[in-house]
């Protein structure tokens, strides 16, 4: 995955932020909407596209477009930086293939100890009962 190649395929759109903020919200388009067309991307291989598609299936639209928003800062430039960084982190994590877990074998001594402890607990509980006087 080449960051520069992927960044060149991103498209940004500035829109008005929602919420409180007074006049600044009404006249400044500081919110940034990032879109990335997954299917038509030249930066990712087919395997990488499939991996991203499966891992980010809840965030990808039906047209396989990934959309991210950022309106954290008052500056459009800063929001663009934040959303780009967030996007790259998202793609990097989606492309990670988790290491396969090898099940460990339980040592025989551990099994023996567990059974011995169970027998001890059983004995303790037996000794709590009232003695049979008949």
Describe this entry's structure for a reader:
The protein has 134 residues and is an alpha+beta fold. It has a domain at 3-95: Double Stranded RNA Binding Domain. It has helices at residues 3-9, 23-27, 46-55, 76-95, 108-128; strands at residues 11-15, 31-37, 65-70. It has a three-stranded antiparallel sheet, covered by helices on one side. The longest helix is centred in the C-terminal third of the chain and has 21 residues, at 108-128. Belongs to the prokaryotic/mitochondrial release factor family. GO terms for molecular function: peptidyl-tRNA hydrolase activity; ribosome binding; translation release factor activity. Pfam families: RF-1. It comes from Flavobacterium yafengii.
């Amino acid at each position: 995955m080449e960051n520069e190649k992927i960044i060149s395929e991103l498209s940004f759109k500035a829109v008005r932020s929602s919420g409180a903020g007074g006049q600044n919200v009404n006249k400044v388009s500081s919110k940034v909407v990032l879109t990335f067309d997954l299917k038509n991307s030249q930066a990712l291989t087919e395997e990488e596209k499939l991996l991203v598609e499966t891992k980010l299936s809840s965030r990808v639209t039906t047209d396989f477009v990934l959309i991210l928003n950022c309106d954290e800062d008052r500056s459009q430039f800063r929001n663009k930086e934040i959303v780009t960084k967030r996007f790259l982190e998202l793609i990097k994590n989606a492309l990670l293939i988790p290491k396969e877990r090898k099940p460990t074998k339980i040592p025989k001594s551990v099994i023996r100890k567990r059974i011995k402890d169970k027998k001890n607990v059983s004995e303790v509980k037996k000794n709590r009962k009232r003695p049979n006087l008949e």
